[in-house]
Structures are given as structure tokens and as C-alpha cells.
């Protein structure tokens, strides 16, 4: 993309309404615009990151064998009356009446609807196991929306639902989700720690939240410091293998890690004192096993191998897609702006032309721009007639991981500068070498 | 995908509620499920086609230089009070009150919101031309929703908005949209004819609707038969070239083609009698130029080259993404089921194993399945233990354009059968030749 043709309305001033750094930087970098309390437009740069995150989630769900679909944003109230949650949910549920005075609601989650789909179409245990998921906009009418997309009212979430014949099979689905979530977050450049949590309005007492440590987190968390040494990495895993998935669960959840909701001082005291940590965390996902909580009242049963109808065992599994942008920025920024992890960056590299209008500098930039695209990379070329300082500040603010700086002085000896956003370090090299280096850096990401 | 692990709940009986063939086939093929009047879940097969259509739209919008973003589904009522449409829109607008009694609405379209974004961020003519678009769920509270996704209440639409300094520049944006829409529909296997139409609640008298001819269309249309001979094909076009785009507009709109709203018997009478046609059409898109209708009341102005503030010239341009599934099926089916055009088919090819459980047949199917995937194709392998007749009927119903049939008799001489869904014709060949043939057929689609 050429910046002269893009829509990237960066702000020079810090917006007053933003209390936390991710909200401030998303507004300043022209990623979002608030339309009313807790409801945002995603401007082009923000939308690009949102799509990258969605794409990672889709890819990792496919790898785990989970099947994508899409449920609508509006739901009939009757489904929620069946489960008993219509009255329970309280004021966070946005209730709507249509022109015929029928009760609808803007879905805050989808246990009822997916259970309805299941009971309409599945009859036999032979069609199990089954895990369906979607990525869809949801609404929770927070009394005090704040922190930008971190606690918005209209938000994008991936939610998946497993249907299994037995508790054991459902717990394997739980483990599959844990593994796929670990992989997903790592691809986004995040360490998200699974912690024992509380079931809340979804239900069930078998649940883990995934938390990213950050000073601005809304939850207080307590953990054994050994847990932050764990990484999933690029290990191969067979998602059908019960033992392999169980081993990952044990590896990542056997050390103490709990949110304040489930924190237990007595157990925590058994962690060696030098490894006890308390910190703040941002919740970016949660997995649940809740057995037959919905299948029983809603009649989601299958005929088992013995010919008897039994309610299916279910769980639900969510990733906060739109809130992840905030969490990633909270964990990746400095005083100059955002520092995107390479897995989610909106553009792979920025090109800064130091002398726009100079024929040979322009030509060099164009050649680099074209060759990066030919390599499958997505560059942002700052082709505006602006001072170098303004171009650098803009690139630092929007946080692309790499920058190529092209000026007439360097070009005289066939050199450009390749700069890493995080370290700030620059290296002179030929355009060809810089392109090869970037292709190499992004190869695992493009092939993932 | 292996069918044994997919969720494809096909129906044996014709659903009673479906009045038109696309609705009936989408229900029978397990593509959608109605959740309440005019609100549907997209089951996995339906969701896949929806994504293919979205992808084509995104690719063609990018080619035209239009910039993707995303506006929320819910909008504050105040924006619509500014334009005067809040009261005008009537009962089709779904109005919502949040917990603080603030008025929201579920957006039926986005002229107001995009104008608000523009006026907040753009100040100078130097930032023009600009075209922003999104693909987002919208809601129109139809009094009598019917025909499945063809006239649903919650529907997915691509809507784009151009901002230009002058009427001439805005008309070039109009032409760019016309060209990109012609390309988009052709990639979906559709002939969509631009016809002079009426501005309706969007406004403006410079507007064309794109119509797909089909017996079940809701509009009566009148046209010169020469128009159905036109195809855009794979001609290269420079979207920045005003003359090139204008020439396409003239080529595709100079012959008589109007909906009943703008039909003029006197002009129609000038078409040679043997070329006059009247038929029914399904509207799958519409483009508008409406000048300063929104920019003036909402204060979306820029400083022009002469230092004076002027309201920008705008247009809006929509493609009915979810309704396109219905339109494509209306135009592509037979008595046995759907016949997907190759550009949008959910899976590229089906594999039918005639003797599931037979070691060598299973192995041959697995090898073909793996090799098709290695070629970048997306096959659906019917690996269920079912009769051949049931497998064939299922494949015909869901409408994949190609089928590979694998049985022990053919394999004895290294032969499988490759069958074209549309023609019904089969050819015996080696698995290797069949894979090469399919890779060749889909190459232009995968590279688009």
C-alpha cells in the first residue's frame, strides 16, 4: 500500500478520553474511532490487524479439526427462555423488540443457539465428536464501557462449542482447545497463561482463563514464576491423540496460576516463596466444560451405542478477538508507539523515502516496494512529500516491526537502512539483501 | 475435508416453508438454518460459500484501489437525526434502546456513519480521492421476510463510499465501481446486468442496479437482448484511467436495460422489436452517485485548491453478499440440486469412495485426497460407509462442480471416473490425470 492512497488518520495529540496506553495508541495510530460509548469503527489499519488475528484463529481451529460456521448477531429470546438465562442475564443483555413486537436480543454468547442447531440436526452418537465455532460480533451492554476495545460493548469474539458422548471425550475437546489456544496466542506474539478461573454466567467448574500479564489488566493473578518459562513453540501435535493433548494440559496447568476469583492462599503458600508472583492480567480467552447444563434443559440428546437417548456433554471456548488488539498493544509498545509482533502486524515493513520527488530515490523505492510484494510481503510505502522526521515518527507510532529507509546518500553506494522497531537498531545493506532478509524473517509466518 | 468429520446435515424431504428453489436447496443441502423469521445461521457449507464470495469482493475492491475497514452493526441514532433519515426510514429500521435509554439502531446502511468518519479526519482536497468500504451485517426489519437469504432481515452486505472533490471525480469513482462489480459477478459465475434504477431511500438519480435474470426475481426488467452478449472477461483495466472506465460504463449501459421503476415505453419502443425482452431479475447490487446529499447537512467538507471549504461529492455502492448465494443458486441448479460455479464452490471437488473399508480403495482415495490438497485444492472426501447411490445423490445435491469416483473395479486398471456436475458427463482416467486436469481447471481461480 502507498501511504498517499491509504486512509491512516494519525493524531498528533493524545486523546483525552483514553485512560490506558492501548486505547491511546489505537486512537493516535488511526486504528479505531469511537461512534458512541463502547462502539467503535475499525479504521483501515485497525481492521487489518483484526483480520490477521481472525486468520490465525481460523487456521489454528482448522488444525484442531474444529468446523467454522456463522450464527447471526440477533437471537430469538425464546431460546434463552428455554435455558433459563433470559431473565438471569440482567442488564448486560441488549434486548430488542422488532416491528411485530417479538423479543430478540443481541447475542452476548451462543450456547443456546448452537444447542438448538445441534438438537435439530444430530441424532446419533456416530456423528460425534463435533466441534463447531464461529467468529462473530457480540454485544454486552456494559454499564461503564472503557479502555477502548478492551471493554467495548460491541466486540468480536471467537466462540466454539464441543458436543461429545461422554465426559471423557468432552475433556479431550477441552484439552484440544487449550492446545490450539496456546498455539494461537504464541503466533500473535503473546504469552497467555492458562489460569484456573470461575465459570460465571456460562457455568461449569472446569474452566481456565488465558491471561496476558500487563500492568493495566483488570484481574489480579497469582502464579508460580516457573509458568512464564513455558512455551509451546513449534512442536507437532496430533489433536486426535488423547494422551498428547492431556500432557500439554498437565504441563501448562500443573503449576499454581489462578485469578483472584479462585485464588487459594493455602495452596499458594506451598509454592516456594521465591517463585510466588502476583501481578495483573488481561483475559484474552476462556475454555469451559459444563457437561449437560444446556443439553439437558434444551433436549440436545443423541442415541448412544446401547440405543438409549442421552444428553450430550458440552463445553464452550472463547477468544476475545477484538480485545486482543488492545492486549497485544499493552504488552508491546514503548514511548514512541506500538511495536507489532510479526505475526499480526498490519504491514510487514514500512518503506521511508527520504527524498520524495527525486527520480532515482523514487525509482529505488518503487523497485523495493514491487519486489517485496513479489515475495508475498505486504509493505507500506510512505511516498508522501513530508520531512524525514515526520515519516519516522509516523512509522514508529503505527509500529511496523521493520523499516527500510531509502535516501540518495545511501543509494550512491547501493545501500539502504534496515531498522528493527523493537531494538531500534539499524543496519546498512543493499536493497537486495534487505528484501532477502525480510523474506527469511517472514517465511514461517507466511507459511503457517 | 472428510465428510465423516464434517457437519453437513442434508435433509431428505423438501422443507415446507421454502417457496423458491434456492431457499429449498440451501435448507436441503444443510447450508442454513432459520433461527427466527428472516434470521439465519450459516451452517458450515453455507458459511464456506459466503467466505468465497466475500473473498472475491475483497480482492476486486483491492484491485480498484478501494480501502477495507469495518463499521459496527449498531449506530447511534443522533447521526441519523443529522441527515434527517432517522424519522424518514420507517419501520424497516430496527431501533434499540440501551440500558441508559440511549437510542441506537441496527444499521441498514452506512452513509451517515462513514460521512461522520470522513468529517472527523479529512480536511484537505489533497487527501482525495478516497473510497472506503466494509462488509458487515445489516438489518432491515422487513414486514414479511421470505425466500430465505434472498429477503432476510439480518443480511451481509458490502457497502463502499467514495469521497471526491468534484462531480467529475465522483463519476469516475462510480465507473470504477461499475467495472469492479462486473468483474466480481463474473468471477462468481454470474451475469449481472447493470440497469437504470431508482435512488430510493439512499437518494440520487444517477444509479444502476445489477440484476441477475431469473424466473423468481422480484423485479420486472426490460432490456435489449444485445446486452446479454456482453462479457467483461479477463481484460486488463487501469482503474485510474478515466477514459478506460468510462468506456466500460458506456459499453455496458448504452443499450436499453431498466427495471420497472424507471421503465419508459417510449424509449423501449426504439429498440428493434426482435431484440426487446422482458423478464424477471434478482437485484444483487446497486451503485449511486448522490453528490452532496449527506456531506452538506453533515458538514463533510474539505479545503479546496483555492482555500475555500466545499462539501465533498459522494456515492455509495453495495453488493448483497448473503443474498448472492440465493441468486447464484437460482441461476445454477437442476432437479438434482445445486450446481456451483467453480469460482464460489464450497469444495473444489468431491471424492466418492465406492467401497469404504476396502483397503486398496481407501488407500487410493487417501492418496487422491492428499495430492489434491498438495495442489492447493480443497476436496470433500465422502468417506462414510454408505451406499454409492446415497453418496452420488448427496454430491449432486450440494453441487460440487466435479466428482471423482473411486472403486475397486476401475482401480484394477488404474482408472477413476471424473464427472462434471453440470453436464453429467463422466470420463475414465488415471488418478494422476484427473488431479492434473482439476489443477488446470482451477488454476485461474486459485491465482485470481
Automatic annotation (TrEMBL), chains A, B:
InterPro entries attached to this UniProt entry: aa-tRNA-synt_IIb, aa-tRNA-synth_II, aa-tRNA-synth_II/BPL/LPL, Anticodon-bd, Anticodon-bd_dom_sf, Pro-tRNA-ligase_IIa, Pro-tRNA-synth_IIa_bac-type, Pro-tRNA_synthetase
E.C. number: 6.1.1.15
GO biological process: prolyl-tRNA aminoacylation
Record keywords: Aminoacyl-tRNA synthetase, ATP-binding, Cytoplasm, Ligase, Nucleotide-binding, Protein biosynthesis
Gene Ontology molecular function terms on file: ATP binding; proline-tRNA ligase activity
TM annotation in the entry: none
Cellular location(s): Cytoplasm
Residues covered by the Aminoacyl-transfer RNA synthetases class-II family profile domain: 38-341
GO cellular component: cytosol
Superkingdom field: Bacteria
Major location category of this protein: cytoplasm
Entry keyword annotation includes 4Fe-4S: no
Catalytic activities: tRNA(Pro) + L-proline + ATP = L-prolyl-tRNA(Pro) + AMP + diphosphate
Family that this chain belongs to: Belongs to the class-II aminoacyl-tRNA synthetase family. ProS type 2 subfamily.
Job description of the protein: Catalyzes the attachment of proline to tRNA(Pro) in a two-step reaction: proline is first activated by ATP to form Pro-AMP and then transferred to the acceptor end of tRNA(Pro).
Subunit structure: Homodimer.
Protein name, entry field: Proline--tRNA ligase
